[in-house]
């Protein structure tokens, strides 16, 4: 095998193709048996019968098979790697679900331990030392039986020493702890080795769930993106560049620019990770990392990219060096050896941050470092946003995260702990003064738009940066200016155009550019000042990325991509189209303006209209066109429309839409996003059968509609003349078709936002009908664009608590919380069809049944807190146990009688999901009635007893009894 360079990854084992390449031998027979089990593992997991399948395999394993796999693994490293992944996946799957404790079958564990010894170079070296023979493969391979026995003894000795240390409460010496970590490394390094993410069917070998089929966010993909952008090679050179300063300053600046570009690309890849938090929380985290392919944690601080950049850039706090090394040691312990070696290589080099603090560092190098720091900061900021979704997973039954955050003490405490941990991590890296991340720039206005008495209505402002910055379509610039009165003010503007730069990286929707343009309306102190700077002025800027808005190419001839722009924002679409060498499929660009004279980027649009026919259709909607405006547009190939953009779209009905990108003001964006042109709103079979709360949901991709709202100043006032909304009224609006939330003292109707919310529907549904200020502030903070959009959905002011009915308002809020969980836990993108043809894309039955478990747990706790009595809560739990027993019996029968029949398994799972979703639908109707009764009594100040809770509980018990009977009839 060729020696890999530091940081590079080896090839993925050819799991499926290995059988055809191996000669007949006992080792090949063992591989074939394990391969067959792996191909059936997913179906067994769906029926929660995987332990029986694994136990059946374990019964066929013994010392003969141990010798056989040792023999073939010593001569074929690819087989050894494949065995390592397979055995670890089986071991981790056996431990799921963790509600019932279980030990790994002995022979399976023995085989996994021996393979791990052979698979890790450091462990194999220790083994060879014990064998007192040379480590050349040929000599070791002559004694497979001895090798297997010695390797197993060695592994057991390591585990025993670790267990004794744990029992005595003493830490292991560093070198021994490293050996223990190596023995378990397969559990984490499988992130890099489990299947080929370019192969859509590779997930079927590991029993993977539907949200982990896609490639986005996999550790391997991130590493390869870093390699493709030349960032890995730049990092390898970094020690030499740092040691050679100051003579290597220019080369170091170029390397930092390349790394900055790579970080931006990887961050967008991480953002595209789309999962169902409930499925992930209930199954994937419990399976362990070895059974999945992409996960929330892969977007977290345990991805190698975080370690690479942290090692290079260091920390801003006082104890940076010591704290950094300790943290890196912990976070990189499970990386593949070659990846961890690059981290160690960087850690041993001189400190870049220390050099920048000296008088020897040039201004250009300091600015270049700040450019990289901006991207690193947003990488962590994005992770902080995504990490809040873990609270939904914890509510679904996940026990903890890879970083050790556990669900003890309730999810509210976890959310606060998580937010605090991430806030501290960012403070340690970037300090308190984020303005220190800004770079210098020159702002110069041009092409002013004059109205009335030659007054400047708007202007295009070019920002020329002191160092190249990575900018993608939709990104914003945070601009700080010093006004003539000496005051420093900051405003945020959407980038409307970027200028290509020679010899700088470009691709993946990004480019490293030395200049960008913003279309600014002459409104407000900062904007008026910038529009007046025709000679240029000094400013400071920082990029605010918008990964949710990234533009991507059509991949099929029948696909359509729709671009909708208001005014000067059309520039960002124009710049992207200009850089495309070829357009596949069809693109529609719809831009709105008042009249032709106010249309931005006319010359560029005219060129595109000629160059891109017939792939690009340009539509210009003018609300107040001049006499010749429409004919001028026709003359250069655009389609004119007299009216508003929404009026034009009302006449359209687009098919085969890949994405819709909307850019403009908050009111323009929200009105456009609601256009029926982008939807085929037909009532689905699932919605008709189970009700609107269980309508289909998309969780495998980020939304098709992507909205970029122009930032508005925070001081934009909210008109105070809104009606009061009582808390009981708020509680009645918590369904996917009628969703209100409270943020602070205002109530908002965010139903329309569900369709394009970048964080997915379940995040919003988790706080439907309730106060959401803590989660909103944690994710969005004081984001000008998000707050601008939210202001357009306001329905009223939140009334203060009802002093006479505070207890009942509290109980009502708890009912809403439990119902929101039931909604989130019962909605899935894919459910098994009667024929079983989509079985590999669906979650296991354990997930849908978990919705019943979580409801019972939450409702039982509520009844206990209300001190209602023992009878109903006890009967509720007993009924839940009976439902579980009926489900287990149903699935065991299906496994015993028809496991080999995929269609029959699919039919059984279809019936199981159908029965559980019908139950969820019934419970929703009971809860809706209960909420209405409580709200009516609170509003009318009527007496309300616990009888309504008794009645609701008994109805739920009766419905669950029906489910148990239904399970018996499948």
TrEMBL record:
Cytochrome b5 heme-binding domain: residues covered: 722-799
Keywords, comma-separated and alphabetical: Heme, Iron, Metal-binding
Any single GO BP term: L-tryptophan catabolic process to kynurenine
Official protein name in the record: Cytochrome b5 heme-binding domain-containing protein
Family matches, as PROSITE patterns: CYTOCHROME_B5_2
InterPro entries linked to this entry: Cyt_B5-like_heme/steroid-bd (IPR001199), Cyt_B5-like_heme/steroid_sf (IPR036400), Cytochrome_b5 (IPR050668), FNR_nucleotide-bd (IPR039261), Riboflavin_synthase-like_b-brl (IPR017938), Trp/Indoleamine_2_3_dOase-like (IPR037217)
One Gene Ontology cellular component annotation held by this UniProt entry: membrane
Family note: Belongs to the cytochrome b5 family.
GO molecular function: heme binding; metal ion binding
PANTHER family for this protein: CYTOCHROME B5
Gene3D superfamilies reported in the protein's UniProt record: Cytochrome b5-like heme/steroid binding domain (3.10.120.10), Nucleotide-binding domain of ferredoxin-NADP reductase (FNR) module (3.40.50.80)
Organism placement in taxonomy: Eukaryota, Fungi, Dikarya, Ascomycota, Pezizomycotina
Signal peptide: none
